[in-house]
Amino acid sequence: MGVATPTQMKVCLYLEAESVIGRSGFRTAFVQQLRALQQRDLEITTDPNDDYDILHLHWFGPLSFYNLIKAKQQGKKVIAHAHSVGAYDLKDSFTLSNTLAPLYERYLQYFYEQSDAIFTPSEHAKRLLEAQGIRTPIYVVSNGVDLERFRFDPRRRAQSRAQFRLKRFTVFCAGNVIPRKGIIDFISVARRLKKFDFIWFGHLWGKILTYDGNMNEALASQPANLRMPGFVEDTPAAYSAGDLLLYLSYGETHGLVLLEAAALERPIVLRDLPEYQSLGFEDGVNCLKGSTVEEFSRQVERLADDAELQRRLGRAARALAETNALDCVGQRLHELYQTILEGD
Fold it and tell me: What pTM value is reported for the model?
């Protein structure tokens, strides 16, 4: 197949086992990028058995690897989307994850190096991949945020607050309930600040899958001001119920929750990590940062007592989210697809 012109280009976005990883950031990024591309002037399919010019893989399972090899044998271009970079984001997640992390990282390196290009969601993730010695070209593409879907609505906020029985200043977070996401520190802050409501939206896996003694102990003794309703489908409404996002993850390649909360103009308190700087989060400009439970608690209290600071940080966060809008992501993807097709 010869090089396609922009109007002829057909791209296959493929997410293996979509139903299995339906509650993950992988699927959210896939859906948002699919939506972004549907707004562009190019043909899209999600079926790897169709004809196409570029195969864009959003996972790395056996079917994805099969379709990668098949596409290469047919002379087609393949992009591997590195939502995961290896040990960095596997550690402290699921049972035996720390033991399996080195093997997992070697497999990912092999998988990614079979592709013609790698897309990854942040400059920090790109640097981590380059440090592993990967030679395949790596491009940064934001996972994006749907600004129309994530638009603050006072009516939906009131409904969600009633649904989750929230009556006071509310601190929220979202993500799988695993140690890496900072659940233990979140519980510790909630225990310190009993005058506020805390809520964590995210799936709580069984102890067999996520055994961690410290986390299980913290969950068993969680304070009365903390609610954990599990995974929620209507995330914009759920996040709107909160007054402040307290995001204490120990490592992220992107952090979709951050952009979603930012789009809703929720003020944000973050763990001070280098990846957030590369995403554009600056302490005192569009968020507040900390490194310890004591610092996080002080920042939450500071924001709760300062309505003007809440508004200022919320507006600045929304401006950052706008730079990651779906139309920007769609344009970036379209341009990169054309660059990769012309790479020969």
Answer: 0.89
